[in-house]
């Protein structure tokens, strides 16, 4: 089952409805659930109950994609981004002159918390962020958690994952590079936009795509202005999403409404090519560029880079400390 | 004005009330606001309106600290932790064999997003996290954002900050050290507990403590088992909280209910002493240790380290990639 969040162009800007997505291409229709339906709640209920509500939605008329604005399927209560694709880590490390992933990468998965309020809809324009000449994308697959988990086994984690979507973790590489000198990871380099969508495909629907270890194995690709620039498979992740949720939940809450992302797949970011090529080839994204990401059995997100917004003035450099003893 | 979140020990575990804190020491009382009062909303309203509601609360009987369980004053909708104390960065860098803060530290403030669901109450026990032999604390001051800001000036930011509290960003240094080899910052090393409290002191109440540049200048100290191990002043931050909020809001949302923290002050973490001393002196925290943090004009948080909880089994090492071409 595919579930989308949407509003009609004539609705209030903060209106939000959930729809059942049926059909493909020009036959695709979004069939609204009852007003008040919540996407995370629908995913957290039993399949039987969800199906019965979906039957009601399907019986009524659907809307074409021209008749709706698709919204981020979830406004996350927290968002973790992992680093699970060995070949991506290998490419980035070689770009820094290292021989490959450090031993620590293999031991257990790492993640960072992301800007939860930066999520944007699957077809939304993305404004060029300030202070960057190196705008990049990151092709990822993301899981939507629909039940609270703490110290959950892999089996608990499986029951807590409601579905999956495509994610573009937009990144300002030059800003991020300066910030990461402080060892805490990126700050403003990644807090301006994260595209998720186009909808959530329920976990049960993707079971046929699991490999012998239970890893989802879906083809992933990204194009810029219609030209494919990256391709990989989600089966190349070092850990399954169930393992990632279990790991995140060790002595910590993973709550309903959280999003956990795979990290960038191999060739899923321009920066990986820049490291490999020793030059900005392909070039950083420019205003007007269209980035399109597709994951097999999930769907496609498409976003145009548009002009910078008017931003706040930068803050001054640090005030040097004056050593007045406490 | 001091505002605390609390429940009575006999209330449901998820009960949550807001109280006006009056008096000091044994005369301290928590005067409940009407049921349904929300701490972030109270802080977001005008001072006149807040005072009028506080007058009603103050007229009724108050509860002693023995009669309440103080809760985290806010369950953050997102949480940023900055790195604003030059002397702390200097100490940590020297511990890594570097000559001092990199030039990038001075240019603009960096931050990471924290685990928002890890916040715990001001007097709560903290369970020893798994996989660590190097539990540490971090003494910080935190601001509570009570109005949404995007591209806000320093003046906008000032209107958006409702108040301040003490924060202990508990850290498992060995876990964090392994994770930070991957350059994304800490993951499991910092997602298990963040103590905030004991209450929020409204921003207006701290105005007398602003220095000539408008920076809050409050004495900060931390003790372990009654012995002072760290002291600094918030006036040693490289940027004011208003500058931090403005910076965070550039091309990004900072929303009501967010918490922004200063980062560790100088001598506000054992790890800084470990770097300076070249040895684990003072020793890492052990079960039974009591960590107490005080910030002038705000208050004190006190937490005991207790036994580990039963955690989920660790996940296996990464599955090595099998190069099936996409």
From TrEMBL, chains A, B:
Keyword Hydrolase annotated: yes
Database matches in InterPro entries: Fumarylacetoacetase-like_C, Fumarylacetoacetase_C_sf
A GO molecular function held by the record: hydrolase activity
Keyword line: Hydrolase
Domain of life: Bacteria
Domain Fumarylacetoacetase-like C-terminal: 81-306
Pfam families (alphabetical): FAA_hydrolase
Protein name per Swiss-Prot or TrEMBL: Fumarylacetoacetate hydrolase family protein
